[in-house]
Design a protein that fits this description.
Layout (H helix, E strand, L loop, with lengths): L1 H25 L5 H21 L4 H14 L18
């Protein structure tokens, strides 16, 4: 039984290495590391989300961008290009 588990674990690791290698080879130059390790990083982030109950980095970034798009900037509606602190 221990031998079977060892063989299955080795096959799983070999499949991961082969998959990462294929993704790295097919990716465009300059994005190979991201393409190869992207699924592994996503799996780690999902595990962390499930383990801690907090949102992951990607969800936090998306929410932050959405909030910034909804919030007006300091110069919207002023009609002036100088910040409020510089006006006297």
């Amino acid at each position: 039984m221990e031998t079977v588990i060892g063989v299955l674990a080795a096959a799983f690791v070999a499949a991961l290495v082969i998959g990462m290698t294929v993704r790295a080879i097919r990716a465009p130059r300059g994005q190979r590391a991201r393409a190869a390790f992207g699924p592994l990083m996503s799996a780690g982030e999902t595990y962390q989300e499930l383990h801690t109950g907090q949102r992951g980095l990607q969800d936090s970034v998306i929410e932050s961008i959405a909030e910034q798009e909804q919030r007006p900037s300091r110069t919207d509606g002023d009609g002036e290009s100088t910040p409020r602190d510089a006006r006297g």
